[in-house]
Design goal:
single chain
Length: 261
C-alpha cells in the first residue's frame, strides 16, 4: 500500500481542486462544489484500490466501519473531547481578557444533531476513508505512527488551500499556518484513536464530525467572535498540548497488524 500513497495524494488534490478552484474564479462559495470537492479523498482511495485490488480490496477498505466493539471511553472521547477542549479555551479567553462571547440560544441545542449529521454525510464521509482508511495504514507501515501522523496532517492541511481563496468561505478568516498546525495536531489525535480501536473508521468519522460540529456551534471561529482570533489560538494551543502529550508519552500506538501487506 505504501507505493500507492503518492498517486493517492495526486489524485485527491486533482479531484478536489478541480471543483474548488472554479469557485475562486467565480468569486463565490458554491455549496455543491464545496461538498463535491470534499469527496476527493474517498474517490481517489476507491479508484486506486479498485484498480489495484478489485472488489475484494474495496470491501476491505470499508471493513473498518464495522469495528464498533471498542471501549466506551473511545466513544465518549470521540463525541465530547473537542467540546470540552473548546469550552476550556473559551473559559481561559474570558478569564484572561474579561471579554464575553455570544453563545447560541440553549433552546436551540437540538440543532446539534442535524448539524452533526450534515457534517458527517456531506464533509467527513468524503475525507476519512481516504486519509485515515487508505493513506494512514500504508504510511504507518513505512514510517511509524508519529511520522505518518505528521505527514498526513501536513498534506491534509494543504489540501484545503483553495478554500482560503474562496470568497465567503470561513477559511478566509483563519491564518493558513494556524489551520495547518491544527490539522497536524488533529492528525496525531486521530491516529491515536485509530491505533487504539483496531483501526475503526467508525470512531474516526464520529470524532471528526463531532469536532467540526463543535467549531460550528461554539463561538471560537472568527466569524462568531467578531473577528477575534484569540479563542481559536487558545483552542489550537490546547489541542497541540494534547497531541504532544500523546507523542511524548509514547501512547500513540503502533501500526495494527491487519493493515500490513
Amino acid at each position: 500500500m505504501g507505493k500507492s500513497i503518492l498517486p493517492f495524494c495526486i489524485l485527491t488534490f486533482f479531484l478536489s481542486w478541480i471543483v474548488w478552484i472554479p469557485m475562486i474564479i467565480i468569486g463565490d462559495d458554491i455549496l455543491l462544489c464545496r461538498v463535491a470537492g470534499s469527496f476527493g479523498p474517498i474517490a481517489a482511495a476507491l479508484g486506486i484500490t479498485g484498480m489495484r485490488d478489485g472488489t475484494k480490496g474495496i470491501v476491505k477498505l470499508f471493513q473498518p466501519f464495522l469495528f464498533w466493539k471498542v471501549d466506551i471511553f473511545w466513544y465518549l472521547f470521540s463525541f465530547f473531547s473537542t467540546a470540552l477542549l473548546t469550552l476550556s479555551a473559551i473559559g481561559i479567553y474570558i478569564f484572561a481578557t474579561g471579554n464575553e462571547l455570544t453563545f447560541n440560544d440553549p433552546k436551540s441545542i437540538y440543532l446539534v444533531i442535524p448539524v452533526f449529521l450534515y457534517v458527517l454525510l456531506f464533509s467527513v464521509l468524503g475525507e476519512e476513508t481516504g486519509w485515515r482508511g487508505f493513506a494512514l495504514p500504508g504510511l504507518q507501515d513505512r514510517y511509524g505512527a508519529v511520522k505518518a501522523s505528521l505527514i498526513i496532517g501536513c498534506i491534509w492541511g494543504f489540501w484545503h488551500l483553495p478554500l482560503f481563496f474562496v470568497e465567503g468561505n470561513f477559511h478566509q478568516d483563519i491564518p493558513l499556518w494556524l489551520f495547518i498546525l491544527q490539522d497536524i495536531a488533529l492528525s496525531v489525535v486521530m491516529s491515536w484513536i485509530y491505533n487504539h480501536t483496531g483501526g475503526s473508521l467508525l470512531l474516526i468519522h464520529l470524532f471528526h464530525a463531532s469536532s467540526n460540529t463543535t467549531l460550528g456551534i461554539l463561538p471560537v471561529l472568527p466569524m462568531d467572535t467578531g473577528g477575534d482570533l484569540m479563542p481559536l489560538y487558545i483552542s489550537c494551543g490546547l489541542l497541540l498540548v494534547l497531541s504532544m502529550g500523546i507523542i511524548v508519552t509514547g501512547n500513540l500506538g503502533k501500526p495494527i497488524d491487519y493493515v500490513k501487506e
